[in-house]
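Protein data sheet
==================
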Amino acid sequence: MEDELARRGRKRKIGPRTKNGRLKAATPVADKGTAEVQRMRTWLSGQGDPVLADYPLGILLANNDISERHHQVACRYAFLHAVVYGRASVAAASFERIGKSWSGDWDDQWLADREAELARLTERLKGEPARLRMVLDSVVVYERTPRWMRPVRPRISDVREAELFAQALALLAGGEGRAMAA
């Protein structure tokens, strides 16, 4: 008679259970994103590695819009900015101190050397418009994908911003060649 009566409450979730009756935790699966995200990542990276589509500098490198040298200099700039001011981007990841945490367990001399290196890099941008540094920091340090990298009809301001970014990247690399392909 008891089996014939309906049980009250929610139905039990289906799946494998532990000895105590709780659901077993699902094994984690690498999330590659939705089909739309995967298509966008492939489109952004062009013929390059889709993994590079995770950050704006990677997209530019994958599409051969910047050279490997400019990519390395910009990543170094992001790393130095992260050491001095705090981490803000994937490009700032450091293999130099892989075992160390970001909590300040570096010695004072090492930190002073990184601050001096960042000062030398930013010195190259002195005398340039403030907008130039803002565009550089936005793309490199804070990884904001600018409008001119998206599949939209460019505005005059987009073209100007791309030119400023290319100029800033060239200055950061010490004036070595053009930073971005025409």
